[in-house]
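Morning - G4F inputs below, output right after.
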Amino acid sequence: MLKQKKITSEEDIELLKSHIENSSKGTKTFRYFEKRDFSVLQKHKITFLYFNNDECVGYGHLDTEEDNVWLGVIVFDGHNGMGYGKYIVKSLTNCYDGDILLSVDKDNSIALKIYKSLSFKIIKETEKLYIMKKSKKIKALVTGINGQDGSYLAELLINKNYEVWGTVKRNSVSETQSSRIENLRDNGLINLEYADLTDMASLISILSKVQPDEVYNLAAQSHVRVSFDQPIYTANVTGVGTLNLLEAVRMVSPHSKIYQASSSEMFGNTIDEDGYQRETTPMNPVSPYGCAKVFSYNICRNYRNAYGMKIWNGILFNHESPRRGTNFVTNKVVKAAVRISLGLQEKLHIGNLDASRDWGHAKDYVVAMWLMLQSEKPNDYVCATGVSHTVRDLCEYTFSKLGLDYKDYIVIDKKHFRPEELENLKGDSSKLKNDLGWVQEYTFETMLDEMINYWLKYYGK
Ligand code: NAP
Ligand code: G4F
């Protein structure tokens, strides 16, 4: 138990941290509170208490009450402001059991730093104090957490103080499989469980155990060209796999909100008259992958309507990053161009240079996923940059950044063409921007610059 004292050493900091973590469970506060006459406190508008060794050492009250906003002023009984408190009154509007509320002296920069590192946010300032709050952790389950998007989303959620769980599918080479999330895993920031979208029992098992508030279904056989080689496998994972997950949620965790990773590949070659694809554009998929994603998209809408399940479809256009698999065209081109510039490779074998894509950065797009699940009503949203480039533009920009002419190095290889090609993608994200305030940070160019720098550094330059 934490004694009331000034923080002067690392040891004190650790003690304080562990105390705060433990105190978020909340039971002690309520036990203590039951012994008191709650109505007396309410009468005086005392709405939070500060404890030390089970003794109430301070209290606070509200001075302003607005819908969904809590503002507090802390009044102390001989308390130095380094204590901790719990937000415990249930009678007032937006109260969360388990939230922790505390005050920090404005001149106590060490304490402020510690609490910020523990995800406390300043919700109010008085003349002498910062009033900070940490909310009960929200639990998220991310399928495909070790994929490109899964790794960025996990980082985003951790920064938002979520308890993050993820599924990985069994693979014979565990080292490379976890490379994108090694840091998070090794620092104990995520919880990993084996599961496979084709194995419903494994989904039921993890869902019953975690009971997540939010489920992000990012797992898929996500490569379009490969889906022509393995159409049935792709349909089983990328299509029926989603249904397995929905059924599992319906059975054992019906309160969970679900994000479904839908794709611009679902539109196929349909384009609205103004040249864009948007939520209302008809879907005419041109690959087994696209067909499987349309099934998932539709079954999500069906479960939303039929069972009132809280499911959002994010229709995301291509998004890339240094973590993109190197068999997707952006990272394949960037990696090869860097290797060529360093004399490590001679040629780049590539397919259709004329196809155009709307390429954004995965870091921006995982924010859109999260925003969707924070919105009031389940819905479908397109996420795209609204700018389109050809594969040729991609080669030209990347090679020229390295002082090379792409035409000297590429070899057109039939192997990389698809039996049916999706020629043009350009998305309209107005709905996402207007309804949820999504903004994109990266452009095509800044994204490619980041990828080029990543590979230069990787090869020691
Ligand atoms: P990714 O890097 O290929 O990641 C896919 C993840 O799914 C990996 O963790 C993979 O595990 C896992 N997975 C594959 N088969 C599975 C199975 N049977 N059971 C459980 N997990 C399985 O894809 P991404 O780029 O992050 O994309 C995330 C999601 O968004 C995918 O559903 C993708 O189809 C969709 N999407 C992507 C884009 C894009 O441009 N990136 C655009 C629209 C939609 P292993 O690595 O161990 O195989
Ligand atoms: O990078 P890609 O393989 O991505 P693709 O097929 O557009 O699919 C990606 O985006 C979808 C969203 O629209 C996602 F749903 C899907 O999961 C995936 O993330 O190919 C992009 C374009 C294609 O037109 C392809 O034909 O690049 C062309 N391309 C030309 N040469 C090549 C190559 N693609 C690959 N992968 N490799 C080549 O050598």
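Note: The pocket of NAP (ligand 1) is lined by residues 143-144, 146-150, 167, 169, 171, 177, 196-198, 218-222, 237, 241, 261, 263, 316, 318-319, 325 (CB under 6 Å).

O.
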